[in-house]
Amino acid sequence: MNTPVTTESVEFSTNTNSAPLLQVTDLHTSFSIKAGEVKAVRGVSFSLDQGKTLGVVGESGSGKTVLARSIMRLNLGGNVNTTGQAVFEGKELFGCSMREMQNLWGNEMAMVFQDPMTSLNPLVKVGRQVTEHVRQHLGASRSEAKSLAIDLLKEVRIPEPESRLNAYPHELSGGMRQRICIAIALACEPTLLFADEPTTALDVTVQHQILNLLNREQQERHMAMILITHDLGVVAGRTDETMVMYAGNVVEQAPTSSLFADMQHPYTEALLRSIPRTTQRSHTRLAAIAGRPPDLIKPPSGCAFSPRCPYVQEKCRQEAPPLQTTDDPAHKSACWFPVGTPENKEAFARNLAAKLPQTLSVAEGSMVDTNQLLDQAATAEENN
Prior knowledge:
This protein is of the alpha/beta class. Among the domains are: 116-189, no CATH class; 262-271 and 303-383, no CATH class. It has helices spanning 64-71, 98-104, 116-119, 126-138, 142-155, 161-164, 174-186, 204-221, 232-235, 256-261, 266-273, 314-318, 342-353, 357-366, 370-383, and strands spanning 5-6, 22-33, 36-48, 53-57, 80-88, 91-92, 109-112, 192-196, 224-229, 241-246, 249-255, 324-325, 332-333. The strands form two sheets. The protein has a nine-stranded mixed β-sheet, sandwiched between helices. A four-stranded antiparallel β-sheet has the order 3-2-5-6. Helix 4 packs across helix 5, helix 4 runs parallel beside helix 7 (174-186) and helix 13 (342-353) crosses helix 15. The two termini are 18 Å apart.
């Protein structure tokens, strides 16, 4: 059995000789609305080195995009409250003026937004949108900016780049629009790139091309990248580290290879279970995560995932588990009954015997031996 050891902060940095490129500490972001205060990000900490890739995974509403926009100071409005620290290249971002942030946007850090149709101005030609940052930050002339724009479009595999400069966004396909957004983000060669759901609403083959494009550009430019997605399959083999978020919290984080080899949080396991597989028979029912994400105005007491967790116990409903490490100091999760431990198996057996809906759903989907689990539950009760 692994003995948990609580850790107060989580660092992804593997470079011990210098400070990380980005250091985020205890980041909280909330939005004040009429119904109350929406706690979108609740105490996230991590660090990222130059040239490394961090994957941020979770369902819609888990706080992934708000986290990225908070770091870049893009959550504008009087109802936004952000606390904590975000240090980029030694500079505290939350202490910068908006003018200082504008100098960083595009030049030092950039974002590829998840919907290229809404992130591109439909009334402005592609050429002007690609050259805007170049002319503002690099002081390039009109002809120099146009030449650079053509080179960028070639680099992101846009056919006939000269003619595309005079096109409007609606004249291009979804995949081409996303490539345009990537070209805009890379125009000033940023040190840090946020890719927010860069493959949303794209065909599977186009998704693969876009992800390969991002990986190639990152390696050639030695950029750091934060890849935001709801799909664990996207981060597999493409990120150095993976951070899983749920209800504004980090519930598990580890080197990506370690995460897939030894998932410890039930939510991470549920995300992986919900991925369709080509080995499944035709018309096989997809494995959905039971229940709904929590209300971020009034989140549940204890573990936020407890109402949907197949392993939930009374302790989970009463006490929020801290982010902990087991035998592997680089692998951390926030769960009282980590996946794969004897306590986890006993909890599952007890919930199955009690016919907990989310537990029954998982049991039916995994084709487990129900009688064997019931015997385990009876043994557990006798031991207690």
